[in-house]
Amino acid sequence: MAIRVLLVDDQPLLRTGFRMILEAEGDIAVVGEAGDGLQALEQVRALQPDVALMDIRMPRMDGVEATRQITGPERNGPAKVLVLTTFDLDEYVVEALRAGASGFLLKDAPAAELVQAIRVVAAGEAMLAPSITRRLLDKYAGKLPSGEEEVPDALGTLTDREVEVLKLVARGLSNAEIAADLFVSETTVKTHVGHVLTKLSLRDRVQAAVYAYESGLVRPGDR
């Protein structure tokens, strides 16, 4: 079945461009469009898309609040949110990730990257671009803990290897890269990541990365 996508952006020209790119793919169907967050909520309820491609700054309701309502505990449907952004709006992306977005993508990303991101998010994975993640968290380090705060008790439930994996996830490494770094199989890494998400009650790798920074486990600038 085709991946059902809702386009949410207050610029009609951009929506048209995204539609042309996505409808050229046999496994993706654009089922609707919305020009602001309120329309997005209405369309999500009516159309039940798999992925909402979400702009951040829009009239009436911004993308952060729309994301929070679409992915929150009272969500009504399967929709996952992939946020679109430019670097001058990075601080909003951090908020969108906390609100429940499954990832983010630059508006000037190549068409192939947009298509792949939608497939990844629709499959239930997180679109965690390493270079963007590191720049985001480094740039907004002032909004994150100083490192002097008490480490959350939940981290104590992780094994040493799971802590290692969490740190590498926070750096934006893929499962394959983590496997190479730790000299283990990719299947083993997937198992560790699953345990981390379960023990910390996190939804996906994006939330895990944000948690690692907010808890002070990883410091901005760490490599």
UniProtKB/TrEMBL annotation:
InterPro entries per UniProt: CheY-like_superfamily (IPR011006), NreC/VraR/RcsB-like_REC (IPR058245), Sig_transdc_resp-reg_C-effctor (IPR016032), Sig_transdc_resp-reg_receiver (IPR001789), Tscrpt_reg_LuxR_C (IPR000792), WalR-like (IPR039420)
Record domain HTH luxR-type: where: 151-216
Residues with the 4-aspartylphosphate modification: 55
GO molecular function, one term: DNA binding
Record keywords, A-Z: DNA-binding, Phosphoprotein, Transcription, Transcription regulation
Domain Response regulatory: 4-122
Biological processes annotated in GO: phosphorelay signal transduction system; regulation of DNA-templated transcription
PANTHER family on file: TRANSCRIPTIONAL REGULATORY PROTEIN NARL-RELATED, TWO-COMPONENT RESPONSE REGULATOR
Xref: Gene3D superfamilies: 3.40.50.2300
Naturally occurring in which organism (per UniProt): Streptomyces pini
UniProt cross-references to PROSITE patterns, sorted A to Z: HTH_LUXR_1 (PS00622), HTH_LUXR_2 (PS50043), RESPONSE_REGULATORY (PS50110)
Domain of life: Bacteria
Pfam family, one: GerE
Name used for this protein in its record: Two component transcriptional regulator, LuxR family
